[in-house]
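User: Show me an example of a complex going from sequences to structure tokens.

Assistant: Sure. Here are the input components:
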Amino acid sequence: MNMRFYRTTMKEEGNSANRPSNTAFTQQRLPAWQPMLSAGVVIPGFLLIGLAFIGIGVGLLITSRSIQVLELDYTGTETSSPCYQCTMSNQSNCVCKLSFSIGTLFKGPVFFYYGLTNYFQNQRKYGVSKDFNQLIGDVSYFKSPSSDCQPYQRVNGKPIVPCGAIANSMFNDTFKLYQIINGKEELVPFDGKGIAWWTDYNIKYRNPDYTPLKNAFNDTEKPVFWTKPAYELDTSDASNNGFINQDFLVWMRRAALPNFRKLYRRITEGNYKDGLPAGNYSLEISYNYPVISFEGTKKVTFSNVSWMGGQNEFLGIAYLVIGSMCVVMSVVMLIVYAKFRFPEED
Amino acid sequence: MTWRSPLALLRDAVLSQKAREKELRSLVSNLPFEGLGKSKQPNRFFKPNAIKTNKYTPLFFIPMNLYEQFHRLANVYFVGLAILNFIPVVNAFQPEVALIPICVIMFLTALKDGWEDFRRYQSDKKLNNMPCLIYSRAAKHYIERRWKDVRVGDFVKVVCNETVPADLLLLHTSDPNNVCHIETSNLDGETNLKQRNALPGLCTSNDVFEPESFNCTVVCEKPNNNLNHFKCFVEKPDKEKTGAGIESLLLRGCTVRNTEHAIGFVVYAGHETKSMLNNNGPRYKRSKLERRLNVDVFFCVLLLFIMCLIGSLGHFYVWLLINCFNDIVKGHLDSPSLSSFYMFFTMIILLQILIPISLYVSVELVKIGQIFFILTDVDLYDEETDSRVQCRSLNITEDLGQIEYIFSDKTGTLTENKMVFRRCSIMGKDYPHKENVIAFLHHQETQVIPDEKLLQQISRSERSSSGISDPYMDFFLALAICNSVVVSMATTQRQRVIGLLKKSTTKSLSVLAKRTGSFWKVFDSPKQNGSSTSAHKRSDDANGVQPRALDPMTLSARPAAASGDVCYEAESPDEAALVYAAKTYGFTLLARTPNSVTVRVPSGEELVFEVLDTLAFDSNRKRMSVLVRHPITGEYVLYTKGADYAIMELLGTPGQQKKIAADTQYHLDCYAKDGLRTLCITKKIVSSREYQSWLADRKKALAAIDGREELMMASAVQLETELTMLGATGIEDRLQESVPDTITALREAGIKVWVLTGDKPETALNIGYACRLLEEGDLVINMTSTINLMDLLLKASVVFQVTCVSILDCTLEEVRRYHEDPRNVDTTQKISLMIDGDTLAIALSPDLQDRFLELAKRCRSVLCCRVTPLQKSRVVKLVRDKLKVMTLAVGDGANDVNMIQVADVGIGISGQEGMQAVMASDFAITRFKHLKKLLLVHGHWCHTRLANMIIYFFYKNAAYVNLLFWYQFYCGFSGTAMIDYWLMIFFNLFFTSTPPIMFGIMDKDVSAEMLMGVPELYRTGQGSGEYNFRTFWISMLDAFYQSLVCFFVPYLAYQGSDVDIFTFGTPLNTSSLFIILLHLGIEIKSWTVVHWIIMLGSVALYFIVTLAYSAICVTCNPPSNPYWILQNQMADPMFYLICIISTVVALLPRYTFYVLKNSIAPSPLIQAKHLDRMEPSVRDMWMKEWRSLRGGTEVKESRLSTPPSPTLETSVDFYPGFGDAASFVGEELSLNVITD
């Protein structure tokens, strides 16, 4: 009897201090969406994705097809190549001319690229070989370049500015394009402005605050492979000289893949504003950059661009293929659904 | 403190080491040396009482914690990699950056460790500063000191309700009988009072103990952690030795009750005390999943090695191919082979996260979350005891989902362990106590309604023989006397003494409770009856109805006050039930002291029996005896009670006795068939001469320090012969609520349930039917021997073994045939095995165990009866090791501890038998029925969640790392990463770390209702479960596929363009984020608010952090430079188109596969999920259909708490199909196949 009394009192006193709180969270009963992956449910999804992808794919393919591309290899490995003689021995200031013709109007604005293959700008040791502080215009680092720049840190005891392998290996072929009109060569004007990233030109790379710029480079050496120092990259235009030289900036932005192209110039001016008209052209190349040693090739590319960049059919095809696959899958799902549906899905 | 030479210090150190290592220690009183220097102290070599459990000191925290952390191999690996990165020739990143992840993880771990250690320090400080009373020679009395001041050799006085500060040899108490009661709930959770006796013959007068005159040497054994064993003797100056055992030892952490004060001699202090030696931190078990995980980590290492080798060889190849390229790249470089050797290490650094650094931390976090949800489950909460489930092992939650064998104790686990006296047989006459059934239904466990006939019989014999030597009187006297029940005083038992120590007591107790890792709990049992009554009585006391009684003698001296209100505290509920039964018939146990027992007989007379000796119960003898001198006749009487088979062979055989014994045996068998626990009660009159000679032996045994147990037992056996049968009792132990239902569900879940019990075969069989372990219509193979093992050893045990072998073989053959019989296809798994301890002992022998297992494997359930604790653990070990299955042992008593520790998962039921099982367990529950939800729901969830989480983790790292690997093919195997390293770290540390953890804690594949309703679903986790070789490698292959897609879609899209490195890497990184998160999205079975927040939050975090980082960091991390990259990309439609297509292509196969599989061949879990979405009523219908379809038998109306009908056994018959084999009966071994 006593015990019963005891027990009841215990309960009345609410002696359940240990009782877990009975909330949806602690009892794992939070309202939940439980997606059921089964054929019936996914049919509309597959169909929708499929159709959308086909649409995107068609759009991409059309866009890509509308882009005109002209690629010319000028490595000169073959004897028939006009640049063949430039690959022989170490000729300096070798110039070769490449002739080509355009059948129809090459719609503008035309972008002119140079391209390299088998060139590993993404090599890790090559990639780290630069001194950011130099390139941002900090003169104190001109005297003592970062050790990352090894072995292009110093030459003859003098510090190299800009130091490092990337800067050292800057692409130094130059191009001139002539349209041959009635046997006469007419220079096609190149536009070299704004070909680098805006952030590179305005924020990441700065020239030291010296006038003339040359003074900042006192007691420094130009990179080993360079023919002229950095402050002479473009003597005609101060805003394109030194570290903010557009060609330099383009080169310094390392390519992700071993076969790449880099923007050299745009053709946006004068008679060629609307593009390159049909006709014969001649490209004058001052051939300096050696690529044969590592089995690389050099080429130039004319291309016009769309919203999706350069020509690339892959994405369009991929979208089309996947889109059609999805449509097919939705049909398969329909069959599966008809055969194996769950009773409650009626 | 005097100056001491370093040499002396060194010598002391060596000496103390030596002194501590010695097997025997001689201790003397400190008092004669009081005030002398430390070097003069005789006991200076032994540890002081101050304890220190914190591992670290503030000064050395960092080095020590680092040392601890580097015990984990993974940490060494990652730190090694980070250090590797500092070597310039191999480094892949900025060295400092590579340290970040490992530092973050080690810092978090150190923070956790530091906090835990600080808490330990605080509680140590609290304990060390608790007050206690130590005798001081200078002050001539006990002065208050701190616990930390107690030294070995001091005299400590412990006041009532105070906690004992060190292990004390009890020398004197305020009690006239020199006894002291202690409560050991701090140590083992048992709340009943235990009696401890002061060492006899030490004080000159009973009233005062003078420590200063104590000039004996105490010789005790080396400290050990056995709480129930202590060997010691005290040598007086005159070389007289007195032995002492655990009954004279007050353990540190116990509380003194019912005794005003006790004085003890400190034998062990501080870390050498038994309770501290027992306190060995939380157990570390490695779950099956984790073992598997480690194997796969090894696979990952192998994979990493292969990838790095490819990278290194590729580097070599590229080197040779484009050697000249390096003129431009670099002016000079190392030789190709050396360079590619370096590259190998660079690759390891680059691809290191293939070994998931955060996996171990994440798994720990997930388990904490899972345990949180187990702990907060309301269904696992027990109202009556106000206790939740306890998780004592923190890292084996997922093992709960893989159990294949359950080994269960019977008493207290399947049953309530609330004993009710149901029937008795006296002098061969049965008294059925029919009314008890009704009382029983009213849950009045301790109240017995007397049998009318028996009452008449008693009053008759009382009249005739005036209660001296009538068997009926003797029977009840034996019930009242022959036990270890302590009569507790209602008034003082749990009352705190108001004194100078009052304030600290309560607080320190809780501290101590934490320290020893035990738990307070409220019992709800007959033995708790004492405290409940006392609680009730306390209110009476407050009203002044009852005066305070502090001492049992006073109580017994005033029988009027105590009549009807005595409370009993028994170590086993059976004993209490018997004492209560005796009380019902007027034989009230009033008081028990070591030397006397006071019983009031029906005539109202109070008899004080002088207790000459108590032969305590042990599991070998299976009986206990009390030797008393009868106050009226002056005879020496031995009352013995015990298991029938332990008693029957000891009976004397005068004519009349034989018949009684036979009748009693018949009744016993009937009781057992009713599922009652039986005990035989006997008596023996010992002649004075016999007693004297025995006493001499006994004394020798008591004083022995070596082989004491054996001698004690031998002396006990010596006396327990030629007993006279008085009768037998049957005690009912009610089945716990929902046990049959739970067992049925567990069996449907594909779990084999074995019951291992110490009970008789008949009782076990009956309980087996009652809890639906055995079904009517089952084939029960009975392998029990009818002889005692003792006889067996004497007789030809070889013959027995041969018999056993042939029976095993025959049975096995039959069972095989039974299974192969096409007619029995539907009824497979309906064979049950019943085996007893003796047969089991032989079946477990090395040459037979395979056959035994072969047989047991084919049985649906196995009942082992009359097994010892050791056998229990051997059975579990055998099944676990030989069958390679996951085992779970569940039990509630000390006899289950072995089994619980051996099993993969040990579950303790915090019931009536103390806390030993709980202390040894991994999980502690309050009711057997909780096992159902714990396994079927939480086990399943924990397993699937963790398994899927780990698989996902491997996938995630592999998928991400492979992106880097594929890039190596296009960067000359130079170790370039196309993603900024900070973003890579963030990717793993922030953007994709929380979703899998949430997934591991909160995902829910099927609702709890379904899992409970269709136990079948549990089978998905059994065996290798959801995390196995196949699932692991499929997900790794998927990771490879996805990374290929994720890399080559952007690659092909950007091929030949002027894209720069990070611009190329950004869509890769972004689409891999989407792929990885959406992959998880496919895996997540139910999306709650939390899921949405975390998933969307991760995506948002990625864009916010990356955008912010790209906007702020112009040159913060040279030479890598992600400035304005993402911004630029996000303005380009191509970025989105690439991300979309690669995400879709990467996930399409997995998604399609799931969809098709779920539609064409849905797994049971998917079907269950479908059912889950139905209306509850429709769902129930489906569930029923499903269960019947799958061969799981319908859950019949289970017979709750109704005692199984004895008629069940009457249909015992040989199974017809068995023919000769079935009727094979060995000499003393029978094989019965019972069908219904």
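The lines above are the inputs; the final block is the predicted structure for all two components together. The longest strand of chain A covers residues 94-102.
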